[in-house]
Specification:
Blueprint (H helix, E strand, L loop, with lengths): L9 E5 L2 E3 L5 E3 L3 E5 L7 E6 L5 E3 L6 E6 L5 E6 L2 E3 L8 E3 L5 E5 L11 E11 L4 E11 L3 E6 L5 E3 L2 E10 L9 E6 L2 E6 L4 E8 L2 E10 L5 E3 L3 E6 L3 E6 L4 E3 L4 E9 L5 E8 L2 E6 L4 E6 L4 E11 L4 E3 L3 E5 L10 E6 L3 E4 L2 E5 L9 E2 L8 E7 L2 E7 L5 E6 H4 L4 E10 L9 E4 L6 E8 L2 E7 L6 E5 L8 E9 L2 E6 L2 E7 L9 E6 L1 E2 L2 E2 L1 E10 L5 H15 L7
Parallel strand pairs: 6-13, 15-22, 24-31
Antiparallel strand pairs: 1-4, 2-3, 5-7, 7-11, 8-9, 8-12, 10-11, 12-13, 14-16, 16-19, 17-18, 17-20, 20-21, 20-22, 23-25, 25-28, 26-27, 26-29, 29-30, 29-31, 32-50, 33-34, 34-35, 36-37, 37-50, 38-47, 39-44, 39-50, 40-41, 40-47, 41-42, 42-43, 44-45, 45-46, 48-49
Length: about 550
């Protein structure tokens, strides 16, 4: 309870506001009161047209005022200066069941407004003690727009998750100018808006249920006209899940992959299940269990999906599963996103212009400037080719979307590399989108320290350790791992350091992939092979990679 003291004369609207402990507020409807120490002013109850109303052109209407005096009688009611009195009789002046005076001003029935426009009427009500209450009433004389819902039609049926085209025809008087918009509603909720003809909206992913559909047009004067509702039904559709393969796969060209979908029928029988690679049909099965064998001869990266269609034409599509089809030799293929070796080098006069990715993901690196092209040695290590970087400005680079190359918290990298003893600040491999703030960078080594960056190097995205013995001028297999927050670097199969990351790599962005340098830091030495996996390999897979590399390059590798 609150007591308002020392209030002055006047007319007040009183509201109550409540605020809870989370600062949410609710406000009551207003109550109008009048405070006076003498004669109470007359009260205007209502008018027609009222504030904000619309009247059809040419404005043929009767203006009505309802008023009363709380402590006396109404002496007169004036509209735009024209005064009326009880003596005018029942044609103009009457009393309603509440005892209120009712003025019926018929002067406007002949039509005063040939064009759409805003109108202000001034109402003055005077009581028997000559106290006046004044009210300004602003309304609009307007050509009302028209609207017709043309689609969907009443009784139409769809199958979830439905895509429904909503269309309407709407028009207005040419003199009123363009309309503002047409809105489409389903069960009273706005689902779409169109601001110009043809007025249409595509309503997507509509769930099963019954819907009342309306269209509403709003013209330049903000008058809104709504259609009558029509009823449509969205039937329960079928659902489908790809169960083979259930996750990303990698296979060799010519290999056979089993494709199988788990299907649950909706309101209609299942007609067929289709399997696709990159939106190209692989095959169709019309009977459960819905499955087929897929043999792909052409290398590439394929997005595999299954699509179920029911007897009413409804359909659903699975999320895509990635299938990488390529020849990975003896290396594990799953998750291999970059593979560089001597067989994929393009060189002229022993200068390397392109080092191409052997995976189908196309993460090629190149150098167009002859002065920055590294050298090609056909027998760099154990009779195998190697790419030699001068430590000054040699670099190979390309653009790669991080999501196709890396994972934010998991990676396995293998590099066959050598660092020259006279080179101090070596960045042998990197991918970065925002300098050191978001990159994978292998500074092997930087002032005799191995730096492994994965994320923001200045904010928990770096671990490091001392370079091992016999590092300079010798070939090594270097292994780099990230598994969640844990990072580890091994040389020759032996862990040289590990640590914890406190930042993750943002991979859903474009970045620069580089070999032989990152930014202004360049590698002085040679690289013979690079493998990048976007996952943490198992111990068995790591042992396999080590064995292949040890045999290929005649490198001493422990823990095989």
């Amino acid at each position: 309870m609150f007591t308002w003291e020392n209030a002055g004369e006047g007319v007040y609207e009183i509201r109550a506001t409540v605020t809870d402990n989370r600062l949410a507020k609710a406000v009551s409807e207003p109550v109008k009161i009048t405070l006076t120490t003498g004669n109470l002013p007359p009260v205007i109850v209502s008018t027609y047209p009222a504030e904000g109303d619309f009247v059809a052109v040419p404005g043929k209407f009767t203006f009505e005022v309802v008023a009363y005096d709380p402590d006396g009688d109404i002496k007169s009611i004036a509209v735009n200066g024209g005064a009326f009195y009880p003596a005018h009789g029942p044609t103009y002046w009457n009393e309603n069941d509440d005892g209120h005076s009712v003025l019926t001003d018929t002067r406007w029935k002949t039509g005063y407004y040939p064009k759409s426009s805003k109108v202000k009427f001034i109402v003055d009500v005077t009581d028997n003690q000559d106290k006046v209450t004044t009210l300004d009433v602003i309304f609009t004389v307007n050509h009302a727009p028209t609207v017709e819902l043309t689609a969907p039609t009443a009784g139409a049926e769809f199958v979830s998750p439905a895509t429904i085209s909503l269309t309407a025809n709407a028009s207005d008087n040419a003199a009123d100018g363009e309309m503002r918009h047409v809105d489409f509603f389903a069960n009273g909720e706005l689902v779409g808006r169109s601001t110009k003809a043809p007025y249409a909206h595509t309503w997507e992913d509509v769930e099963a249920g019954e819907y009342q559909i309306t269209a509403a047009v709003t013209d330049r004067h903000r008058q809104t006209v709504e259609t009558e509702p029509i009823t449509i039904q969205v039937l329960q559709g079928a659902s489908v899940a790809l169960v083979q393969p259930a996750a990303n796969i990698a296979v060799k060209p010519g290999g056979t992959t089993r494709l199988e979908a788990d299907v649950e029928a909706g309101s209609a029988a299942i007609a067929k299940v289709e399997f696709f690679k990159n939106d190209q049909l692989i095959g169709t099965d019309s009977n459960a269990p819905y499955a087929l064998d897929w043999t792909e001869a052409e290398a590439g990266v394929y997005q595999v999906t299954a699509k179920v269609t029911d007897a009413k034409g409804g359909f659903a599509i699975t999320e895509a599963v990635e299938a990488a089809v390529f020849e990975s030799g003896e290396y594990p293929a799953l998750g291999l996103r970059l593979w560089l070796d001597g067989s994929s080098v393009t060189q002229e006069a022993s200068k390397v212009s392109v080092w191409a990715d052997r995976t189908p993901f196309g993460h090629d690196t190149s150098q167009a400037e002859a002065g920055q092209q590294p050298a090609f040695h056909s027998e760099g290590i154990n009779g195998q080719p190697a790419v030699v970087f001068d430590g000054s400005d040699d670099i190979l680079s390309g653009t790669a979307n991080g999501a196709t190359l890396l994972d934010s918290t998991a990676a396995s990298l293998f590099l066959v590399m050598k660092q020259d003893g006279g080179s101090r600040n070596n960045a042998v491999f990197g991918w970065e989108s925002d300098s050191h703030r978001n990159h994978l960078d292998l500074l092997f080594t930087y002032n005799n320290v191995l730096l492994f960056d994965y994320g923001n190097a200045s904010d928990g995205g770096r671990i490091s350790g001392a370079q091992p013995e016999r590092w300079d001028n010798n070939w090594h297999l270097v292994e780099v791992y990230r598994d969640g927050a844990t990072g580890r670097v091994a040389v020759g199969g032996v862990t040289v350091f590990e640590g914890e990351f406190f930042d993750d790599l943002a991979v859903d962005v474009e970045g620069t992939l580089s070999i032989g340098g990152v930014g202004t830091l360049h590698h002085g030495g040679a690289v013979a092979e690079v493998l990048v996996y976007n996952r943490t390999l198992s111990a068995e897979e790591v042992a396999k990679v080590r064995t292949v590399i040890a045999n290929k390059f005649d490198l001493p590798v422990m823990a095989n």
